[in-house]
Amino acid sequence: MSNLAEKIERKMSALEHLMKTQMHLELPSAVAESIENLSMYTAHMSDEDKDYLDCAADALKNKRKWE
Length: 67
Fold this sequence. Notes:
The protein has helices spanning 3-20, 23-26, 28-39, 47-62. The chain is mainly α and 67 residues long. It is elongated and about 35 Å long.
């Protein structure tokens, strides 16, 4: 796995943890920063990761519980 792929995987895992613990409702700035940091890598992401990022951004924006 390339360094870039590993970096994306680490950042996606961190975002996944934030979303599963509902931090987008408790500490939205941390989740917004995570999404912003990941957004610069979308050209190198899988479709699945892009979809997850989009859904996380939507949940953050609309203050919806992550399930």
